[in-house]
Amino acid sequence: MTESKPEIELKVLGTRGSMPGEGGIFSRYGGSTSCYLVKIGKEEIYLDAGSGIADAKPANDANITLLFTHMHIDHLVGLPFFRALTEKNRRINIYGAPRAGLTPAEGIEKLMSPPFWPAKIGDYPAQTEIHTLPTEGEFTFPIGKVNIRMIEGQHPNGSTIFRLDYSDKSLVYATDFEHNDESSEKLIAFAQNCDLLMYDGQYTDEEYTKYKGYGHSTPSVGISIAKKCGAKSLLLVHHAPWRTDKELDSIETDLQAEYGEWISLAKIGERRFL
Ligand SMILES: [Zn+2]
Ligand SMILES: [Zn+2]
Q1: Which domain does 150 fall in, by range?
Q2: Strands, E, within the chain: which ranges?
């Protein structure tokens, strides 16, 4: 009997951009900041460690990897609360590119050390290894049987775009990404024919005119990029901190009515399988 290959499972743990929100108006899309779990067999690959990572319950036998797009605090603030760090005999591999002159190890130490936090990452029971990724060109490395590819996006202090390929399935995570002629062209080439494109849809078109240069994009540009790269589905992420459930619902309904149900907005706790 041949063993069936595990599929890619995506679990949304945190969708919010910039800062967490709380209360009934944020209940369905969630108030926690960026964190997504990609599960493939025993591999648990966490994309960013925003406040949403505090809800993660890693399996006992999981191989844990954290991929940081960048070190902005909404992507890092949950790390001190990551349950796996408190577990003895746990090994955690962390990857990220240098940002504003700091390696990921230095960036993490800056957040996780007094007076900002009482314990350094090395003080936690788990064994962690922090790997530095390049910011130039395209780079590829394996995590188990998953092929990870990365390029640099467009964002203040930089942000990595990751592509995860496993078997014949692929997912691209392009958060904290601002479109321009050059960055959009790079992303379109990088994300060719992916099954799922996760794209920064923080601003409406109207808001974007005020926030140009802040490092985020819009659903309409996401749709245009997704069509050009042939993505099978588009998941809009990094919701503006002020955007309520009701507003997000109305954005999603309008987009689906116009373009179809291959487009959706990330909701806390949702799972999808590729
Ligand atoms: Zn962010
Ligand atoms: Zn950012």
Answers
A1: 9-273
A2: 9-14, 35-40, 43-47, 63-67, 91-96, 127-132, 139-143, 146-152, 160-166, 169-174, 196-200, 233-237, 263-265, 271-273
How many helices (H) and strands (E) are present in the chain, helices listed first? 5, 14
Domain membership of residue 185 (yes or no) is yes
CATH of the domain at 63: 3.60.15.10
Query: Is the full-model pTM beyond 0.70?
Result: yes
Give the pLDDT confidence score for residue 269 in this predicted structure. Answer: 97
Domains held by the chain: number: 1
Say how many Å lie between the CA of residue 72 and the centre of ligand 2: 5
> How confident is the model at residue 36, as a pLDDT?
98
Q: Could you list which residues have their CB under 5 Å from ion ligand 2?
A: 72, 176
Q: Which ligand is nearest to the CA of 50?
A: 1
**What does the pLDDT look like over 63-118, one tens digit per residue?**
999 999 999 999 999 999 999 999 999 999 999 999 999 999 999 999 999 999 99
Predicted confidence at residue 155, as pLDDT, reads: 98
Shortest-distance ligand to the CA of residue 202: 1
- Say how many Å lie between the CA of residue 269 and the centre of ligand 2: 22
Note the ligand closest to the C-alpha atom of 153: 2
In a domain, 49, yes or no: yes
pLDDT value at position 80? 98
Q: Which ligand is nearest to the CA of 159?
A: 2
Q: 61: CA distance to ligand 2 center in Å?
A: 32
